[in-house]
Amino acid sequence: MPRSANRPRPGPAWLWVLLLTGGCSTGILSTRLDRLALCRDVTADGLGSPVQIGDGFTTHDARAVVWLDLRDLAHAHTVRYRWFDPEGNLYLDSGPVALNPGGEYRPRATVSASMPIAGAPAAWLPGEWKVAVEYDGEPLTTQRFDLEER
Q: Is 124 exposed, middle or buried (0-12, 13-18, 19+ CB in 10 A)?
């Protein structure tokens, strides 16, 4: 029987799989956290690599930095950093920060946030701190670090 011009023809199998798994609206790739570091600073180069990695800081350090290396970033997202003092009180909240606002695909992206220490109220609060990171409003990771009086 000849195929009718009005009868829809099935598309290639890969197209149906693509549509059933989310199509272009949600994307096939999902962003993943490849590496996280606590450090004292990041380089000024294009990737902003971590400098002096460690989970211990002193009251004389300028800042504590949390650095994230993300892979397969697509679409616009937000990241949020919340810093908690040794008593568990919220000390600093970045609020939602736009990440990849243009929505283009990036095989790799690095982001960082810092908490001032020397000359800031944090310098008078030695002990075990933590920084909680959210990605699109969902918890991503929580890292603990020590702040020693010097």
A: exposed
Going by C-alpha positions, the residue among 76, 47, 68, 46 that lies closest to residue 114 is 68
The whole model's pTM is what?
0.77
Angle (nearest 5°) at CA 85 between 134 and 99: 25
What tens digit of pLDDT does each residue of 23-59 get? 333 445 588 888 999 999 999 876 688 999 999 999 9
Cβ proximity of 43 and 49 under 8 Å? yes
Distance CA 47, CA 49 (A): 6
- Among 91, 112, 123, smallest CA distance to 36 is for 112
C-alpha–C-alpha distance, residues 147 and 149, integer Å = 7
The pLDDT, as a whole number, for residue 45 is 77
Domains contained in the chain, CATH given: 33-148 (2.60.40.1930)
